[in-house]
Amino acid sequence: MALLPVDMDATPDDIVNLFAVDAAVRAAVGLDYHRPTSAALHWVGDEDMWMALVRPGDGRALLAGWHHEFSLTEGSGRGGEAGTDLVGDAPGWWRRGVEHARANDGYLGFLYGWDGTRWWRLDQPVDDGFDPELFPATPLAMRDIIDGLADDTLLDAPDHDDIDALVTAGAELTAEQLAAVLHAPDGWPEVDIEAGVRAAREFSANVPA
């Protein structure tokens, strides 16, 4: 199957920063997050939906993931099942996305490759489940994710301007920017701003191009 260009504004570096903000918020409110490794970043949302940024090196990247409701290609990465072929005639390094899904025992719904200039995907006839507004792939999606985390942890609803500033800062966010977003009524639940800042910094230090 042919490769098709993907119209997506986010570069791999943009996604690194979105993951960093998500990790900072989660760490600050005491929730688990996936720490970055030299090979990949991994994010998990509701109903086990997930997305990963895999970095094979040389400026390339893979965006892999699965949506529990919309990915009709499910099964292609779990436990060695055949499922839908999301690699096809793409360069061999695309298989790193399949390997990542299998290593995490996850269904693989979408797989996009970044060649250093733009994103590409295999010309699949079914819905792969990737909507950038549902995953940490756009600033607006990150705003919705933070809103949800604040609500789930009983924090005050954050101001969207403060969220936007946090997202813009990315992995280099400051304690002041994070504290502006995470307001705890009457000091409960406790918020560990320094833990959040440390989590964000992991994404600037451990993620190669």
UniProtKB/TrEMBL annotation:
<protein>
    <submittedName>
        <fullName>Uncharacterized protein</fullName>
    </submittedName>
</protein>
